[in-house]
Amino acid sequence: MVKVLKPGLYSTVQDFGRTGYQEFGVPYSGTMDHYAAKIVNMLLGNDENAAVIEMTMTGASLQFECDTLISISGANMSPELNKKNIPINKAVAVKQGDVLSFGKLQSGFRSYLGILSGFKTEKILNSRSMYVPITHAQVLKKGEILPVENLPFGHSRKHAQIKIDKSYLSSETLEVFKGPEFDRLTITQQKTLLKTKFSISKDNNRMAYQLEGRFENKLDPIITSAVMPGTVQLTPSGKLIILMRDCQTTGGYPRVLQLADNALNVMAQKFTGQTVSFMMLL
């Protein structure tokens, strides 16, 4: 078991989310940064969909009630085990009674904690991802107990070396495809959209990131249609909104772009005031 001593700013249990339920209005949810989540599970020899803890801007404080292995990837939040620095992007052994904590945010915005065999919280609609009202809580709470498996006797800690690309944490480029309504923009608008550097507004969360500034919009409204994580919507007022993992399943704003999956990982590590630009994939 793992006890939550302090939950941090916004910490949740996530896996790769819920698929097959969007027709019922259920969001995909899941880890904002799939790449970092895959890394922590690969380092531990877990299934890539094993549940992890996602921490936003500030880390949690956790006490381990059993011997196990952990790994951390994504944002560097200066992790410490029993007040001693530990590395990220490596498997680390912990013992019963050990306390994991985090300090200053060094890079990125969201950090991921994996544990051997994954966190064994309740699975609902084939996923452990936290999202109210599907799950009973939106975030981890102080004093909460998270079920995990003990370290098996004789378990090998040796795993293949993994080449990790950290460049996406600082990248400002979002690779995109044309959205369904992209060709309804004028040629000038299309060029402006792909040449402009946009700043991230304070209105950003697991549902969507809003970009600062206004983009000329003379498009007619569309009939409410399907959207998904990575869809870039253009509002009547000219605001651009990038939908993220907890987004709704339908929307009525023109869908001018669609982020590639790796671009969603880049976006997940951004915060207010940072800038991004779009690069069209052919």
SSE arrangement:
Layout: E1 2-6, E2 11-14, H1 34-44, E3 52-56, E4 61-64, E5 68-76, E6 79-81, E7 84-85, E8 92-94, E9 99-102, E10 107-115, E11 145-146, E12 173-178, H2 187-195, E13 198-204, E14 208-211, E15 225-226, E16 231-234, E17 240-243, E18 250-251, E19 255-259, H3 261-268, E20 275-280
Organism: Tamlana crocina
Protein name: Biotin-dependent carboxyltransferase family protein
Pfam families: CT_A_B
Can you describe this structure?
This protein has three helices and 20 strands. With 282 residues, it is mainly β. The protein folds into two domains: 161 residues, no CATH class; 110 residues, Cyclophilin-like (Cyclophilin), CATH 2.40.100.10. Strands 12-19-16-17-14-13-20 form a seven-stranded mixed barrel. It has a six-stranded antiparallel β-sheet with strand order 7-6-9-4-1-11, with no helix packed on it. A hairpin with a 3-residue loop joins strand 13 and strand 14. The protein is elongated and about 65 Å long. InterPro entries: CT_A_B, Cyclophilin-like_dom_sf, PxpC. This is Biotin-dependent carboxyltransferase family protein. It comes from Tamlana crocina. It holds the Pfam family CT_A_B. Keywords: ATP-binding, Hydrolase, Nucleotide-binding.
